[in-house]
Write a structure and sequence with these properties.
Helix content is about 40%, strand content about 20%. A five-stranded antiparallel sheet has the order 1-2-3-4-5. Helix 1 packs across helix 2. The longest helix is centred in the C-terminal third of the chain and has 14 residues.
Length: about 130
């Protein structure tokens, strides 16, 4: 029900990585389309950082459901909530990605899936979209 990637999405991505299911991290893309009319892609921008992030989510290759459930509090701490506006969740999710040094880059698509923008934040915390090359 979130307008951005969920905790389950993040754990699933980390599990794919840790179990060797991502053949080429440099070309891997994961996407989500939400009921809030948002569509996002994530790419692994820094494999070293992403590997460390994935290792921090859980040990081994199996997801501990209790740990995943508790991680919902981390999301809430960043202000990522189902009752937020899509814009608020987008900004909070970018903060989450950057603060946790995930090595992930977020892209946002338009409703036709034909135009994508790379999202980042400036020094004032504003979301800055950049057209993809």
């Amino acid at each position: 029900l979130l307008s951005v990637f969920s905790v389950s999405d993040m754990f699933a991505l980390a599990q794919l990585y840790k179990s060797g299911k991502i053949k080429d991290v440099n070309s891997f893309v994961i996407g989500v389309v939400t009921a809030s009319n948002t569509q996002y892609l994530m790419v692994i921008d820094d494999p070293t950082k992403f590997g460390a992030f994935a290792d921090n989510l859980f040990e081994g290759n199996e997801i501990d459901q209790n740990v995943q459930n508790m991680y919902e509090f981390v999301y809430a701490g960043f202000g990522i909530k189902t009752n937020n506006t899509a814009i608020n969740n987008e900004s909070s999710f970018l903060s989450y990605l950057q603060t946790n040094k995930t090595g992930l880059r977020l892209l946002k698509g338009d409703s036709t899936f034909s135009n994508w923008q790379i999202l980042s934040k400036d020094s004032n915390g504003n979301v800055i979209p950049q057209n993809c090359p």
